[in-house]
Amino acid sequence: MQSNTVKKILILGGSGFVGRHVCSRLSLQHHQITVPTRRLPARHLQMMPGVSVVQADVHDPQQLQALVHGHDVVINLVAILHGTEEAFNHAHVTLPANLARACHAENVTRLIHISALGADVHGPSMYQRSKARGELALQSAAEKAPLGLTLLRPSVIFGKDDQFINLFAKLQKVFPIMPLAGAQTRFQPVWVHDVAQAIVHCVNTASTEGHTFELCGPDVMTLAELVQLAGRWVGKQRPVLPLPYAIGWLQALLMEWAPGPTLMSRDNLDSMKVNNIASGQLQGLRALGVAEPKSIHRLFVAPR
């Protein structure tokens, strides 16, 4: 059953790519939203009715408990794609565990946690393993005390302001060829608006508590096909040169050492040892109110 009651909602990671879309949808439903961020201002959020942006460190347990206080629902979108094993554990395991303790301490009984498709304690990458351990920490907490927990596992998320399709589009504007590790790894990309709609559905629908959902779009594509799509989108499609794992590993190592934001890491490459597609064993977007998940081909269709 859906509820139209106005709720007080805390969104960790609310200033990020997915978080901005979630805040926008919840704002339109007149919910009261708190978004903590380390750096102020976040004007794109502060312009939304009902959204309060506060400066805080969610990784500090005391600050986290103070943030949780007085809210009806907590949504956790915090994630990192690159880093050491310690960094992955800090973001994906310690934070969720601290969040569950804060919810119990403040009698908050609704938590929506965005994990990742492919989360597996035996997965090939630190990212996948840490995501799985974070899920286990939350499930353990939910068994010990009342906590209406929903786990969402999205595949790679696309949108016009994403950091995935846009990255490969920008690279093809510069380089005449695309050397690509993991070229044949399959993905099931999901539109950011569909992910946001699914999260909002969970906020408003109590029957989603206690369940795990896989958020995947209708298309299954190899990484090479996604790169080619990105190139067509900007009118700069380049030939893709698939790399063997050993050469891809060296490429990823060099990219880790390069100045500026990391574009690809060895851990990303390890993640691509397994396909990033729905298992078929869990419910998906249609169970979360998304009747027709959007195809990536409908969004990235023509040169800009």
Structure report:
The longest helix has 21 residues. The protein has 11 helices and 13 strands. Strand 4, helix 4 and strand 5 form a beta-alpha-beta unit. By secondary structure, the chain is an alpha/beta fold. The model has no long low-confidence stretch (mean pLDDT 93). It is globular and about 55 Å long. Helices cover 40% and strands 17% of the residues. It has a domain of 200 residues: Rossmann fold (3-Layer(aba) Sandwich), CATH 3.40.50.720. The strands form 4 sheets. A 7-stranded parallel β-sheet has the order 3-2-1-4-5-6-11, sandwiched between helices. Strands 7-10 form a two-stranded parallel sheet. Helix 6 packs across helix 8.
Mean pLDDT: 93
Query: Which fold name fills CATH's third level, the topology of the domain at 8-160 and 188-217 and 276-292?
Result: Rossmann fold
| Sheet of most strands | 7 strands, parallel
Enumerate how many helices there are, as a single number: 11
* CATH classification class of the domain at 8-160 and 188-217 and 276-292: Alpha Beta
- CATH 2nd-level architecture of the domain at 8-160 and 188-217 and 276-292: 3-Layer(aba) Sandwich
Distance between termini?
43 Å
Helix proportion? 25-40%
Structural category: alpha/beta
Low-confidence stretches: none
Shape: globular
Q: Tell me the radius of gyration.
A: 19 Å
Q: Please count the beta strands (DSSP E, at least 2 residues each).
A: 13
